[in-house]
Design a protein that fits this description.
The structure is a single chain. By secondary structure, the protein is an alpha+beta fold. The chain has helices at residues 9-27, 34-57, 92-97, 122-132; strands at 2-4, 59-62, 66-71, 74-79, 83-88, 102-107, 112-117, 138-139. It has a 4-stranded antiparallel β-sheet. A 4-stranded mixed β-sheet has the order 7-6-5-8, with helices on one face. α1 (9-27) runs antiparallel to α2. The protein starts with a strand and ends with a strand.
């Protein structure tokens, strides 16, 4: 099954603020050096385009032996046996960005890391993850 990323209004507000600031800087409506302001404006607009692309193109797919995360032009494969824990994100920053974040603690012989994802239907995603990885406990659900 494939899940899309949940688009939270909070993220859209942050992107809109970046776009607005980028436009103001591009228009030169600041006391900064005009060339510097335009460079930063272009940079902010470029970042906002990448953020929208990431929001629109992120998918989570359960394959036979792995979870596939496609985000923009990047694809990451996580083998089920490397997922050590799953936690529903809590805390102020999680609430600001998205209260539906899910954190996967992924480990291997080489390294351990945390991957934060935000599936559109978090509960169904966690149910399917529990079926795919039966030994895994979901914390703070």
């Amino acid at each position: 099954m494939m899940y899309s990323q949940k688009v939270e209004w909070r993220r859209l507000v942050i992107i809109a603020a970046i776009v607005a600031l980028g436009v103001v800087l591009l228009m030169g409506a600041t006391p900064l050096n005009e060339g510097l302001a335009r460079m930063f404006g272009f940079l902010l607009l470029s970042i906002s385009v990448l953020c929208v692309w990431e929001l629109a193109a992120t998918r989570y797919e359960f394959a036979r032996n792995e979870l596939i995360i496609r985000s923009g032009g990047i694809q990451q494969r996580i083998r089920y046996e490397t997922i050590e824990a799953v936690r529903v994100a809590r805390g102020l920053w999680s609430y600001v960005v998205s209260p539906n974040n899910v954190r996967l603690l992924v480990g291997s012989r080489v390294s351990t890391g945390v991957i934060s994802i935000c599936p559109n239907d978090r509960d169904r995603f966690l149910d399917e993850l529990s079926r795919a990885v039966p030994w895994l406990a979901v914390m703070d659900r």
